[in-house]
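Why do we care about 3D structure at all? Because function follows from shape, and shape follows, mostly, from sequence. That is the central idea of this module. The next example makes it concrete: a single protein chain, its amino acid sequence, and then its structure expressed as tokens.
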Amino acid sequence: MILATSFALLLCVLIVIYPYAIYPLILKLLPKRPVARDPAHRCSATLVFCAYNEGAAMPEKLRNIEGLKRRYPELEVLAFDDGSADDTAAQILARPDLVTLVQGGGRSGKANGMKRLAAMASGDIMIFTDANVLLDEDAIDNLMAWYADPEVGGICGTLQYLGSEDSTTASVGGLYWRLEERIKTRESCTGNVMGADGSIFSLRRTLYPDFPDTVLDDLTVSMAAVFAGKRLLKVDDVIAYERLVAARGEEFSRKVRIAARAYHTHMYLRPQLASMATVDKFKYVSRKLVRWFGGFFLILGALVAVILSALISPLLGGAAVAVLGLAILLGPKVEKGPVAAVAEIVLALIATLMGVLRAMRGQTFVTWSPAKSR
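And the structure:
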């Protein structure tokens, strides 16, 4: 009995750490697929973003767009305002020389807004970003070089987070994202990345898909390149900057929302996912499915650890129950130090699981609100 319980505990631990520690090692063993990059290659481009109550971020965003257009005067920039209650729309409308604004007239969500912008776009390449994200001034020039290879259908840039020292939540979030960027880079070297983050990615406009407003548009749109038989790459020289969410409660809610939409999107994309190449199916399961259920195996592992302790000694079992109880009660309240860092990781896994369970019950999220603590 003790041996079987020990094996179950080990299995839970391996599943929890697999997407972050074991999967990257496997990626290093896969054959590499080079890309024909040409720094002289140029094509037309449209930059798009959606905004809701981003008035505080707009001055810096507009200055960033102004700098981009000085480097790339032909750049078309389109924005969608999702019924902001602040001066977001007014600030954008004040700069018609930089941005063409589409106003939704109410809350309809990012997916709806992006589809409306895509229908207006004229560039060969669509560049997707967020209202609070700033692009490096060399980003567009570097992006064009990768599209010299006709096999490339989409490009995921590199996101660098600002403010990682503001709180433990931000610090752990920054560490997680640096790991995520390294995994994406390894995926890219072997063929395709399994989906983009909405902060900075691009797609050939002709590949833009149709989809319902309830899905996660970042994942749906970026994976269209893979489904079309093209490559979806992650590159290091197309850089964007975003400020981390510093409040634990806001980050927890954000992860629940994203996970719910991601799993809902997974269900919508299942027929196309089933048609992917075997190596891409392996990547998708490793990067997405296993990670989505990491919280379940974390909880199961904790319960198995308590059972194992009790099997070894009733006194040890009692101590394990006490430690687990204290961790549940006090862990979320600790704001600094190693305990707080562990609490952030655990809460992230639990939030992801909660989002997936909500999606399984048919719930998803269409609209969003910007975090106040970033």
